[in-house]
Amino acid sequence: MNAPWKVGSQGGRDSFAAFLCDDASLDIVRPLAADMGWAPEKCTRGGLRNAVQALSIASSPSILLVDLSESGDPLNDINALAEVCEPGTVVIAVGQVNDVRLYRDLLSSGIHDYLLKPLSPAALRDALQQAQAVFAAPRATEGVQTQNHISTAVIGTRGGVGASTVATSLAWLFSVDHKLPTALLDLDIHFGTDALAMDLEPGRGLTDAIENPSRIDGLFIERAMIRANDNLSILSAEAPINKPLLTDGAAFVQLEEEFRQAFEMTVVDLPRNMLINFPHVLNDMNLIVVVSELTLSGARDAIRILSWLKANASHAAVVVVVNKVHPNLSEISKADFEASIERNINFQVPFDIKAATHAAKLGQTFAEANRATKAGAVLREIAQTVRSAGSGPDGDSLMKTEKKSLLGKLDFKSLLSPKKDKVPGGA
Q: For the modification 4-aspartylphosphate, which residues carry it (predicted)?
């Protein structure tokens, strides 16, 4: 769904227009429009498709009321409406279909509100007053100190090592334990599981952003992201597997910029192939969490990814997390793994299949469902370390802040430089 409507200047455009399919609705809207100081003659007979035709040759109003009653495919028609609406339009839809999924899809597309017919004068007045408030209220991102923002990428050395488990847990911990406004971006466009882990529908926001990066702004972020809790919003997708990802990555950079304005923390669940296709995604990352297992293949790919990060993202601190650690089931020892990657493992998350199953059954992140477990405790320690790492744009400021943190035992110099006392070994 393409949604260009956003907060903007009214610039001589009409304040209000309505396209309604029946006289009963018009009889309610016209006097209400007059009461609010708008021209009643701007309320005309016709539904959504009439609105598309009219606005294709005229400027769209600041507030648009449009009737979906005669639309056979409301979501597709809303997409057509988005193509002719100018920035600055707040759209309120009315219709006869009382369906929660349709309501959510319409809101995800950028619609401000959806009202059921027959229209209630009181409900309609409230909706129109709220639409007016969009123009009067300052943007939520005004005054945000972007230098205090921390962007963290989580990368798995291989599929199945638990990078998404770590990413969703960190995002949840930032939002709940640390009370920080947090954005979670799942860049596995076709097979991402971050929304699924929280028992949420992915929505359409990420695919819309990829298709139309120029339309990404603060209001788009507010409407496109799915709210997981009061402080956590997620942007993900479940694109058809017969639809290839066609993008130059500009949308990802723009999304990260908007996140820095709207949130204090960003967590990006970054599939490793993104390093090849869209390396610029890491340009503004403060910290990168590399997740692996104690396996030969994990060690090999950890070597390759760490080497790539040293050459292409040297500005970011790197934390190495080994997941699913079991003393009797690991292919290689911790010492051999560290020798291979030429640096320390910073955190080891114990293997706990029962805890993982418990989280999946509850539709919760691992950290939320398993606070009392050893694995949950390690995830909280990782979150605390990232949070304490500071807000600087480079590794030096991260290290300076870390020395003052409660987790002083973790030396961030070791996150940025190879170990000197280990002899490199093959994996």
A: 67
pLDDT at 411: 41
The sign of the dihedral angle between the CA atoms of 294, 296, 302, 303 is positive
Collapse the DSSP code of 45 into the 3-class scheme (helix H, G, I; strand E, B; otherwise coil) and give the result: strand
13 close to 88: Cβ distance less than 8 angstroms: yes
Residues contacting 95, CB < 8 A, separation 6+: 67, 68, 69, 71, 74, 114, 115, 116, 117
- Torsion 322-324-327-329 (CA) sign: negative
The CA-based dihedral angle spanning residues 145, 148, 153, 154, taken in that order and rounded to the nearest 10 degrees: -130
Token pair 């954005």: residue: 183
384 burial (CB, 10 Å; 0-12 / 13-18 / 19+) is middle
pLDDT one-digit tens code per residue, 132-190: 876 555 444 444 444 478 999 999 999 999 999 999 999 999 999 999 999 999 999 99
The beta strands (E) that lie in 326-364 are given as 347-350
Q: Tally DSSP H helices, then E strands, for the chain.
A: 18, 13
d(CA 131, CA 93): 12
Burial 94-110 (b: 16+ CB within 10 A, else e): bbeeeeeebbebbbbbb
Q: Could you give the CA distance from residue 298 to residue 318 in angstroms, rounded to a whole number?
A: 16
Secondary structure class of 318 (helix, strand, coil): strand
DSSP codes joined into one string, 238-305: ---TTS-----SHHHHHHHHHHHHH-SEEEEE--THHHHH-GGGGTT-SEEEEEE-SSHHHHHHHHHH
Burial of 216 (0-12, 13-18, 19+ CB in 10 A): buried
pTM of this structure: 0.61
Give the C-alpha separation, 132 to 135, whole Å. 6
Residue 191 to residue 369: CA distance in whole angstroms:
23
Among candidate residues 153, 159, 183, the one with its CA nearest the CA of residue 323? 159
**What CA–CA distance (Å, rounded) separates 379 from 382?**
5
Residue, of 136 and 285, whose pLDDT is higher: 285
CB count within 10 Å of CB 368 equals 21
In this predicted structure, the answer to whether residue 368 has a pLDDT above a threshold of 80 is yes
> Helices (DSSP H) in 121-204: which residue ranges?
121-136, 163-176, 194-197
- pLDDT tens-place string over residues 34-87: 998 899 999 999 988 889 888 888 888 889 999 999 888 888 888 788 878 876
Instruction: Report how far residue 341's alpha carbon sits from residue 328's, in angstroms, rounded to the nearest whole number.
Output: 22
